Amino acid sequence: MSNKSFFEKFSDKITNWTGSSGAFFTAAGIVLVWGISGPIFGYSDTWQLVINTGTTIVTFLMVFLIQKSQNKDSKAIQLKLNELVAANKKASNRMVDVEDFTEEELDLLHKFYEKLAERAKAENDIHRSHSIDHAEELHQSKKTK
User: What's this model's pTM, rounded to 2 decimal places?
Assistant: First the structure.
């Protein structure tokens, strides 16, 4: 199932390497060499331009690699969570693909879960569970009475 494109393989390797101790020490070494070479080049504008240009280019490219990595990780986490929600009989299936909700819908859900948390605190029973469906059933039963 792992049919990765060249760019995906490349970005995975670069992302893994840039997060390593070796990458940090390499970068620190480059800065150290640059700093030590300052007197040799008389701290000239060109000497400063070398480090400024180099760090700007690396930063610019890393933004895209980090974003790609973040997008992939986020998608994988969402899929795992969707699987857990779908597999749990008591969990509300409305939570599957919640990441596609609008900001307003997420705010509404957040308020609902705040209410559930308040209920759970008031009951002083950590084993009691509330779900969206259970709360909806309670609400409907109250409306019909």
Answer: 0.62
Q: What is the CA radius of gyration of the chain?
A: 26
Distances (CA, A) of 53 to 11, 35, 47, 60: 22, 15, 10, 11
Q: Where are the domains of the chain?
A: 1-89, 101-145
Cβ 116 vs Cβ 133: under 8 Å: no
The whole-angstrom separation of Cα 75 and Cα 99 is: 9
Q: pLDDT tens digits, residue range 112-142?
A: 888 877 877 777 766 666 666 666 676 577 6
What six digits make up the tokens of 44? 């000239």
Helix, coil or strand: residue 95: helix
Tokens 């080049």, located at residue: 41
